[in-house]
Design goal:
Length: 176
């Protein structure tokens, strides 16, 4: 694990740095304006071999770079989850005409779907992990759910139409 150092820069934002295996430093200055500076420099203090590289990124560019740099690790993690038998993790993007838009999440178990979990609701740039049954869902939200593929499909159908498909034998078991 890489040790990341965090320093508040009064009036500017936050600086995160870490030292690479070859002795260089990489840092990101996150400005209060939303811009970020990606910097790389030698660890030697002012030595003749010291070099600096700085690149200013707007918020979208910084998010894109973060996704590119972290994409492999994220993809590997998600592919491992897909390998768990009987587990489906899926995302439901809420549209204006969906039944769930403007409604509370509610308890799907009371509607016959036992063993399905709404892991989080993503709204804009923030996530609401493990939302309660009384959490109100809005158009543009993304629901992250986990359960068996059948239960995920039933929940998504309910979120779209407000109607529940017929129960399957798997929905009546208490184990999942």
């Amino acid at each position: 694990m890489v040790d990341v150092r965090r320093v508040k820069l009064p009036g500017v934002g936050v600086l995160h740095t870490f030292v690479t295996d070859d002795g260089g430093k990489v840092g990101v200055i996150t400005h209060r304006s939303g811009q970020s500076d990606l910097i790389s420099f030698s660890d030697s203090d002012g030595g003749s071999d010291a070099s600096k590289v700085s690149l200013r990124l707007d918020e979208d560019e910084a998010h894109t770079l973060a996704e590119l740099l972290g994409g492999t690790r994220i993809t590997e993690s998600l592919s491992r989850l897909d390998e768990i038998p009987g587990l489906a993790i899926d995302w439901f993007s809420v549209d204006y005409d969906d039944h769930i838009a403007g409604q509370k999440l509610g308890n799907l178990a009371s509607r016959g779907v036992v063993g399905l979990t709404v892991v989080a609701v993503v709204r804009g740039e923030s996530a609401n992990p493990a939302p309660a049954d009384d959490f109100t869902v809005f158009p543009g939200d993304t629901l992250v759910v986990a359960g068996t593929p059948e239960k995920v499909a039933r929940a998504f159908a309910f979120y779209r139409t407000g109607e529940m498909k017929a129960k399957t034998p798997a929905d009546t078991t208490s184990g999942g």
